[in-house]
Amino acid sequence: MLKDKVVVVTGASRGIGEAIARGCIEQGAKVVLASRKQADLDRVAGSLPSDRAVAIACHTGKGEDVDALFARAIDKFGRVDGVVNNAATNPYFGPLIDTPDAAIDKTIEVNIKGYLYVARAFVKHARTRDTGGSIVNVASVAGIRAAPMQGIYGATKAAVISLTQTLAFELGGAKIRVNAIAPGLVETKFAAAIVQNPMLRDHIVKRTPLQRHAQPTEIAGAAMYLLSDAASFTTGSVLVVDGGLTSA
């Protein structure tokens, strides 16, 4: 499905990003794994084929880091066909009105600016090739519905959905597709504050028709579809993968 495509995956050192990177490799792609900590990336890349996976540390909230990431990716594999914007942060859990300024700034830097910086770097490269490509933004159901105790995170994920739709409109003529995935509750270190709290987890699971939370691999399939030619007429879409949580 992704044979010989080159994909950059941010936040690839664990959780959903790692699952997407592994899935892309299994489908025949070459993958550039990006995250802030080189050691964590090396752990993942070390279990993947060395000729099809490279690990590059990058703070996506820093534009110069992102430019350097793409320069190294292109030097390694010659081109980039698609990107998965997955790197995110959620440093504060509590009432939105009480969110510390530092948490607001950090969440916006990574979850909004980071996504835009990665998209910008990819588009700049894709336009030189005139072959199009695919951008997949990992949003969240927290960007679709109210996000109690995760308000600033939810606000940034709503912004990701807006960015996705606007970029899809603006980049369609360049044959660049832009879509988002909105996962529900997934068992990751990122979501540990909810998954490992029986009261919070059960509150969500009881409202989910499938009566459980997801595993990272269950989100990876959606990303691989949107990266592939199977989604050649899909752009500006938000693919909700939440076990039916938002269907009620």
What's a concise summary of this model?
With 248 residues, the chain is α/β, with parallel strands linked by helices.
Word description of this protein:
There is one protein chain. With 248 residues, the protein is of the alpha/beta class. The chain has one domain: 3-Layer(aba) Sandwich (Rossmann fold), CATH 3.40.50.720. Helices cover 44% and strands 15% of the residues. The protein contains eight helices and seven strands, in the order E-H-E-H-E-H-E-H-E-H-E-H-H-H-E. It has helices at 15-26, 38-45, 63-77, 101-129, 151-171, 192-195, 198-205, 217-227, and strands at 6-10, 30-35, 53-57, 82-85, 133-138, 176-183, 238-241. It has a seven-stranded parallel β-sheet with strand order 3-2-1-4-5-6-7, sandwiched between helices. Helix 1 packs across helix 8, helix 3 (63-77) packs parallel to helix 4 and helix 4 runs parallel beside helix 5. The longest helix is centred in the middle third of the chain and has 29 residues, at 101-129. The chain starts with 5 loop residues before the first strand and ends in a 7-residue tail after the last strand. The relative contact order is 0.15.
Largest sheet: 7 strands, parallel
Distance between the termini: 33 Å
Q: What count of helical segments does DSSP give?
A: 8
Strands, count: 7
Strand order of the largest sheet: 3-2-1-4-5-6-7
So, CATH architecture?
Answer: 3-Layer(aba) Sandwich
Kindly report the oligomeric state of this protein.
Answer: single chain
How many separate domains make up the residues? 1
Structural class: alpha/beta
Mean pLDDT: 95
| CATH level-3 fold name | Rossmann fold
Please bin the fraction of helical residues: 40-55%
Report the top-level CATH class: Alpha Beta
Q: Radius of gyration in whole Å, from Cα?
A: 17 Å
Note the run of SSEs as H and E: EHEHEHEHEHEHHHE
Strand content: 15-25%
- What are the low-pLDDT stretches, counting only 5+ consecutive residues below 50? none
